[in-house]
Amino acid sequence: MADRDAGGTVGAPEAAAGTPAAAERVAAHVAEHVAEHEAEPPPGHTTAPVRPPVVDTRPTVDKLMWRMPFPYGTSAAVDSMTGVAAPLLAGFCITLLGVVAQAPGSFRWPGAALIALVVAAGLMVTCVQIGFRAQAFIYSRADFEQWRPQPVESQDVEEYLKETQQQHYDEWQSRQRIARIAYNGAIVALAAALAVVAAPPQSGATLTVSTTEQVIRWIAAGLAAAGGLGELFWVAKDQLANRAGSRNTRRTR
Q1: Residues 22 and 83 occupy one common structural domain
Q2: Can you tell me the mean pLDDT for 186-192?
Q3: Backbone dihedral region of 208: left (phi > 0), alpha (psi from -120 to 50 degrees) or beta?
């Protein structure tokens, strides 16, 4: 009997440990112990504190719209006119001027041809001179940011840069307009010179021109004159279009 009591007393904890409630308590204790070990950093390791994101509270500078030519390729077209076409035509006028001066008897009106060629060459040179000076005043915001990569300090500086660019743009517009007028006038003068040069010379004792040659040369002179009139029409149309565009630009400002 004593043995049964002793055996029963000794086996009670074992029986209690085998119950479902005891198993749940053991599992909860193990899970809590594992969680504590996982939360602790390894020896020698320090965890950096989590910092909130830095927000830039400095005031931003609004980039203002700078003026630009329209159509957008106007600047490149003016550069080609003043830097390529005008110099070549000026050289042609000077060369033809020398030809007429050396052989005035081969032309019907050598004096008129010389005057027209001098006017054409002078206007071409004027176009070149004004054109390359005008190019110094045309630039975009991208050009400015490439020359000066530092950010703009304040809105006042941005306003100043915009006003300066507008003044330079107005100066460029004025100069390129003068260069365009000089170029168009030179084209008309060159057409008149070609018409005068192409006219058949008067037949004389030392020069005889056949009827067929005279007809051909009069046709050539007429074509040159027609080209000059076409240039005048084109210039007038271009001027009217530019004035209409200027009025529309002022209305939208």
Answers
A1: no
A2: 95
A3: beta
